[in-house]
């Protein structure tokens, strides 16, 4: 055991002499590894950071599963029912004029709430409206909610910019509008605007708050009212619900549960995976690109190490032969060159992590404004330690592989052919 | 007492075509002998020395040094054996150029790790003093003259008190003054320390002054 340690120490001391004799090339190889790891840490942190940010906003605003009613063409006409054995053609078939409500929605909400898989459920009424102030007319949606239920689902309280949701239930004809919408209408909390429904009914309403979710699509056109208010706008009874939104304890169960509920109640439905396909697939693609870029970078860094060691070994053939002649085994020689590879790898990877962190930190503090899809005021960067551990392991792995081949070559050097000259 | 016994040594080279370099060669060396091996170039004298030094393992027959058989041993065993029991001096001095003279001398001892480094350093200094290069101890090896380097190489070969000191034309690359110096040194080691030595040379003058001369031609002792 003691012998092994002294062997390692001796190999290391020889390795260090070799490296300081070739300091410039050693530093360049180290920088190569450091650069690879820096870019990896920064890139993955940046991409993961923005993905996490987008997903957090997106998923907070999207229930795990939702049930709604869809306008459908009936697949069977009345003629088909009467003459089932012949081909019937009906031209210009029109959708039935139906209410957009969920049949027995209130009862369904009650039943779903009892389901042990369900964390929270909220029934709501949504409808398309025109917001009007003076000459400005903007179309959008209004969502009638029960604040307590909806807050449990979407954490609405934290999205408020001014005013509050608390008076929604008590104050008649009151709404909370999205920040983009408020800006377009040039209104603030306390102002009054006009609202026109699809059927043409007009209401004067007061704005009691402004919210901002960060999702530009929602902030620019949506507002919240109480269920009762929206039902009155639509002139429908209090049992009228158009959407049921559910959060489960385990989001992974959402697709199956959505299917079951759809079948049970004969509603249309969707789940968060279906709703966010583009986002999820985009994330997978981005990850793939990050890892491919990383593989290329590390391959280049690996070539740098391979190069310097191979060069070193050609130059040191004579030294290797001498070492073998004075009693160094093949393993000892391999150890000398592997030590060089690992020193380059460890220093390079550590420096890479450090620089990667510094760049990531600098980027995360840089102001950056965007209102495309998501509202940003600075770039989101992830500092997950996992990526740093991954970067370091990648670096060491590359050096180990790049160092192994030349080291094995060095170990195989035949001392006699060289010593005979 | 025989310190080295070689029996039925056969050695072939295969490149460019099969060629028998050593032909059924037998050899014994007694402890304390100062032996020279002579022969024309291509006679197989260096080949023999590299077999006896345990660096070349591709041979037929038996080599027994100090009671241990060398045939069929693996690389790390042989490296260890070489480290402990065989000192080697080459024709071209062959020091590690980036290391100091002292470190060069200490290296086989550090590898052996039988003594702590301080003790080893003292021993290396003593050897350098014996060879009259002690004032160069802290210089880088590449800065020394050829004669000085060869003396340092001899010090390195002696650091682990080897059973046998082997030399492959150790004076072949030196001027006459340095040749004389090195030869006197070998003589001194033989006389004062009874160091067993096996030196390949084509210098007749050198060979004449050794205890015993083995002449090789066409892979046989003649």
UniProtKB/TrEMBL annotation, chain A:
Residues 26-258 form the MacB-like periplasmic core domain. The chain crosses the membrane at residues 27-47, 295-314, 341-363, 386-405. InterPro entries: ABC3_permease_C (IPR003838), Lipoprotein-release_system (IPR051447), MacB_PCD (IPR025857). It is a multi-pass membrane protein. Signal peptide: none annotated. Residues 295-415 form the ABC3 transporter permease C-terminal domain. The lineage of its organism: Bacteria, Pseudomonadati, Bacteroidota, Sphingobacteriia, Sphingobacteriales. It is found in: Cell membrane. This is Lipoprotein-releasing system permease protein. Its main location: membrane. The keyword Lipid metabolism does not apply. The keyword Membrane applies. Belongs to the ABC-4 integral membrane protein family. LolC/E subfamily. Keywords: Cell membrane, Lipoprotein, Membrane, Transmembrane, Transmembrane helix. It comes from Pedobacter steynii. One of its GO terms (cellular component) is plasma membrane protein complex. GO terms for biological process: lipoprotein localization to outer membrane. It holds the Pfam family MacB_PCD. PANTHER family: LIPOPROTEIN-RELEASING SYSTEM TRANSMEMBRANE PROTEIN LOLE (PTHR30489:SF0).
TrEMBL record, chain B:
GO terms for molecular function: ATP binding; ATP hydrolysis activity; transmembrane transporter activity. It comes from the Bacteria. Keywords: ATP-binding, Lipoprotein, Nucleotide-binding, Translocase, Transport. One of its GO terms (cellular component) is membrane protein complex. Residues 4-222 form the ABC transporter domain. The keyword Metal-binding does not apply. Pfam families: ABC_tran (PF00005). Belongs to the ABC transporter superfamily. Macrolide exporter (TC 3.A.1.122) family. This is Lipoprotein-releasing system ATP-binding protein. The lineage of its organism: Bacteria, Pseudomonadati, Bacteroidota, Sphingobacteriia, Sphingobacteriales.
């Amino acid at each position: 055991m003691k012998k092994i340690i002294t062997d390692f120490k001796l190999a290391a001391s020889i390795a260090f002499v070799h490296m300081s004799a070739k300091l410039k090339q050693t530093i360049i190889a180290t920088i190569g590894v450091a650069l690879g790891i820096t870019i990896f840490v920064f890139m993955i942190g940046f991409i993961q950071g923005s993905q996490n940010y987008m997903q957090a906003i997106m998923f907070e605003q999207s229930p795990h599963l939702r049930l709604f009613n869809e306008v459908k063409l009936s697949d069977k006409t009345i003629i088909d029912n009467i003459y089932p054995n012949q081909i019937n053609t009906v031209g210009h078939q029109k959708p039935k004029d139906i209410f957009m409500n969920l049949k027995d929605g209130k009862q369904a909400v009650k039943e779903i709430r009892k389901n042990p898989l369900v964390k929270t459920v909220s029934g709501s009424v949504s409808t398309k409206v025109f917001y009007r102030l003076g000459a400005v007319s903007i179309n959008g949606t209004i969502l009638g909610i029960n604040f307590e239920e909806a807050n449990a689902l979407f954490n609405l309280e934290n999205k408020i910019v001014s005013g509050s949701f608390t008076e929604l239930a008590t104050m008649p004809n009151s709404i909370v509008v999205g920040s983009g919408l408020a800006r377009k209408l040039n209104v603030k909390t306390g102002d009054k605007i006009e609202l026109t429904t699809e059927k043409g009914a007009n209401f004067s309403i007061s704005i009691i708050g402004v919210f901002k979710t960060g999702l530009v699509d929602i902030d620019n056109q949506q507002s919240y009212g109480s269920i009762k208010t929206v039902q009155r706008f639509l002139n429908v009874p209090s049992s009228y619900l158009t959407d049921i939104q559910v959060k489960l304890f385990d989001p992974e169960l959402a697709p199956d549960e959505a299917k079951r509920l759809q079948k049970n109640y004969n509603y249309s439905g969707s789940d968060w995976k279906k709703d966010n396909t583009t986002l999820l697939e985009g994330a997978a693609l981005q990850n793939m690109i990050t890892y491919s870029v990383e593989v290329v970078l590390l391959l280049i860094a690996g070539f740098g190490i391979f190069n310097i060691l191979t060069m070193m070994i050609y130059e040191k053939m004579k030294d290797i032969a001498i070492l073998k002649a004075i009693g160094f085994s093949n393993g000892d020689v391999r150890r000398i060159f592997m030590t060089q590879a690992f020193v380059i790898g460890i220093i390079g990877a550590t420096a890479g992590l450090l620089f990667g962190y510094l760049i990531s930190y600098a980027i995360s503090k840089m102001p950056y404004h965007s209102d495309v899809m998501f509202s940003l005021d600075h770039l989101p960067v992830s500092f997950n330690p996992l990526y740093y551990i991954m970067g370091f392991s990648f670096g060491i792995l590359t050096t180990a592989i790049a160092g192994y081949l030349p080291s094995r070559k060095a170990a195989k050097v035949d001392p006699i052919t060289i010593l005979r000259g | 007492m025989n310190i080295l016994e070689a029996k039925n040594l056969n050695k072939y080279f295969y490149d460019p075509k099969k060629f028998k370099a050593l032909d059924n060669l037998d050899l014994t060396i007694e402890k304390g002998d100062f032996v020279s091996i002579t022969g024309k170039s291509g006679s197989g004298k260096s080949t023999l020395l590299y077999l006896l030094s345990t660096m070349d393992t591709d041979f037929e027959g038996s080599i027994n040094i100090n009671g241990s058989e060398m045939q069929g041993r693996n690389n790390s065993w042989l490296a260890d054996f070489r480290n402990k029991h065989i000192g080697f001096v080459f024709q071209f001095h062959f020091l590690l150029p980036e290391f100091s003279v002292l470190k060069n001398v200490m290296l086989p001892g550090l590898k052996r790790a039988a003594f702590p480094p301080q003790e080893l350093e003292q021993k290396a200094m003593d050897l350098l003093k014996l060879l009259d290069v002690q004032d160069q101890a802290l210089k880088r090896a590449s800065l020394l003259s050829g004669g000085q380097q060869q003396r340092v190489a001899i010090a390195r070969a002696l650091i682990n008190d080897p059973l046998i000191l082997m030399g492959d034309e150790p004076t072949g690359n030196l001027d006459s003054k340095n040749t004389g110096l090195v030869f006197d040194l070998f003589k001194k080691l033989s006389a004062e320390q009874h160091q067993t030595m096996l030196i390949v040379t084509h210098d007749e003058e050198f060979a004449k002054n050794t205890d015993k001369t083995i002449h090789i031609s066409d892979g046989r002792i003649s």
